[in-house]
Amino acid sequence: MISIAIEKKLKAYHGQQLLQVNRQFVAGSITKIYGPSGAGKTTFLKIIAGLIVPEKGTIINDGVTWYNAEAKINMPVQQRNIGFVFQQYALFPNMTVKQQMEYATTDEAWINKLLLLGKLDTLQEHKPEYLSGGQQQRLAILRALATKPKLLLMDEPFSALDVKMKTTLIVELKPILKELGATTLIVSHNPQELEELGNEEMLFE
Amino acid sequence: MDLTPIWLTLKLAGITTLLLLVVGLPFAWWLSRGRSFFKIIIEAIITMPLVLPPSVLGFYLLLAFSPQHGVGKWLQEVFNVQFVFSFQGLVLASVIYSVPFMVGPVKSALQQLPPALAEASYTLGKTEWQTFRYVLLPNIKPSLLTATVLTFAHTLGEFGVVLMIGGNIPGITRVASIAVYDSVERQDYVMANNYSLVLFSITFVLVIAVFVINKYQAKSPLG
């Protein structure tokens, strides 16, 4: 269980707006987060990851305090064991598919399993610039899973995939998430597209 | 033609470039991360050699490291190191004089990388150093090459600053640019031309190399 109660001022077109979240996510659950652009969905994920620091509040994961503004506790992102799929993929241009996975983990069997799942096993020596948008997005998802995270944060992870690839990946992703026992938060502009994944929802306004 | 000044010049440029690679890269990285008033002041200071007359910089270095007083006296007494009229003095002056040529391009290139690259690396459990070494540096390779070549070429062309702090001691501080000046002073135009031609050729090849690097490699890492 991860409990989040945070406040963060966001820069907005008309000045500032307050991002305020108070919510618990059950271990192993999959939650779809949706809402309009600029509502703070990406910022929320980055706050959980430890990439952005909120002004107030607490983040407690399985009894361990990741963040507590009053007690001045802020666990470094490296120690939170999270997987993060970035909206623009954030693949390393200098590394091949295989190297991106090996940078994340030394578990060869796990790497091979993931590459098979993402149908990237034949493209292991390719650098991101030689992959299609869909292949790059799949790699970003697989790389985030490589560290076997307990918390998976995905920012628009399926936007570049066609319907068939999306459905296949979601179907195959589900047992992997179950195997890892990972709590998953998925930001999406279209919650209907993720119906197969889970029924927890969170709306940003 | 005495080749010692040419050799000395190449040695000075090589050592300066190497030192700036070691010191300048982490420094550029630090500067590229966030903006604070303190960092703006530091950046202004390291940019000064670009606009300041080299003789002014050399003059202050001469004063600062004079063995008669202050830091220079302390270095002389404690470590028996003298920076004035010595090769190590030339290296120190060259490092300071060429700092903006190494730090500037590297800092700009690091700032142009999408922040998500470093963030992705951190989420994979990697430290800031690992991220710098394996993700950031390899993705600014063209800028790094340009900065290295420019630093080397710029050091070859130093005159005012090395003359002020190093003087004109054959085999120790008499680099090629000073040898040219010295030859002209003695009205030995043939010798001045020889040194000038060698300097011109080396510098021209290096500048061509920078253009070639930029033409074929300097593209966005996301391109």
What does this structure look like?
The complex is a heterodimer of chains A (205) and B (223). Chain A is α/β, with parallel strands linked by helices and 205 residues long. In chain A, helix 2 runs parallel beside helix 4 (133-146). Chain A has a five-stranded antiparallel sheet with strand order 2-1-4-5-6, with no helix packed on it. A five-stranded parallel sheet of chain A has the order 7-8-9-3-10. In chain A, a hairpin with a 2-residue loop joins strand 1 and strand 2. Chain A starts with a strand and ends with a strand. Chain A has a single domain, classed as P-loop containing nucleotide triphosphate hydrolases (Rossmann fold), CATH 3.40.50.300. Helices cover 29% and strands 28% of the residues of chain A. The longest helix of chain A has 18 residues, at 163-180. Chain A has helices spanning 41-49, 97-104, 108-117, 133-146, 163-180, and strands at residues 2-12, 15-25, 30-34, 56-61, 64-68, 73-74, 82-85, 151-155, 183-187, 200-203. By secondary structure, chain B is mainly α. Chain B has a single domain, classed as MetI-like (MetI-like fold, Orthogonal Bundle). Chain B is 76% helix and 0% strand. Chain B has eleven helices and no strands. Mean pLDDT of chain B is 91; it is low at 219-223. The interface between A and B is medium-sized, with 25 and 20 residues.
Number of DSSP helical runs of chain A: 5
Question: Distance between the terminal alpha carbons of chain A, to the nearest Å?
Answer: 24 Å
CATH fold node name of chain B? MetI-like fold
CATH class of chain A: Alpha Beta
The shape of chain B, in one word, is: globular
SSE series of chain B:
HHHHHHHHHHH
Low-pLDDT residue intervals, each spanning 5 or more residues of chain B = 219-223
Pick out the low-confidence regions of chain A.
none
Quaternary state reads: heterodimer
CATH homologous superfamily of chain A - what is it? Answer: P-loop containing nucleotide triphosphate hydrolases
What is the 3D form of chain A? globular
The CATH H-level superfamily of chain B is MetI-like
Beta-strand percent range of chain B: under 5%
The N- to C-terminal Cα distance of chain B equals: 49 Å
CATH architecture call of chain A: 3-Layer(aba) Sandwich
Roughly how much helix do the residues of chain A carry, as a percent range? 25-40%
Number of strands of chain A: 10
